[in-house]
Amino acid sequence: MTVEHVSGKHVGHIMLYALSTCVWCKKTKRLLNDLGIEYYYVDVDLLSGEERAEAMRIVERWNPSGSFPILVVNNKSSILGFNERQIREVVRL
User: Minimal CA–CA distance to 87: which of 79, 77, 54?
Assistant: First the structure.
């Protein structure tokens, strides 16, 4: 699966599953960028075939409804949707 990396302050493994056309996904990326946090992301709608299927299996494991964005933190917890307060708590800023 094609995963993008954004450099910044390391606060754990932050993985964002997003859609390229989703306004809430864009807001989540913007917040992480503004906070200067290192994270990884994949725009699931830009994947195809088995890569997209694999990404959707992961998304549905964290959020059975399959909605976006999903921010997975250290493969232990997740934040569903754009929730600035929760994101700030996770990155301790």
Answer: 79
Tell me whether residue 58 is exposed, middle or buried, using C-beta atoms within 10 angstroms of its C-beta: 0 to 12, 13 to 18, 19 or more. Answer: middle
Tell which CATH architecture fits domain 4-91: 3-Layer(aba) Sandwich (3.40)
The alpha carbon of residue 2 and the mean position of all alpha carbons in its chain are separated, in whole angstroms, by: 13
Residue ranges of domains in the chain: 4-91
pLDDT averaged over every residue in the chain: 94
**How many whole angstroms separate alpha carbon 80 and alpha carbon 78?**
6
Q: Distance (Å, rounded) from C-alpha 3 to C-alpha 87?
A: 20
Q: What pLDDT, on the 0 to 100 scale, is given for residue 92?
A: 81
Tell me the DSSP string of 19-81.
-TT-HHHHHHHHHHHHHTB-EEEEEGGG--HHHHHHHHHHHHHH-TT--S-EEEETTTEEEES
CB 6 within 8 A of CB 41: yes
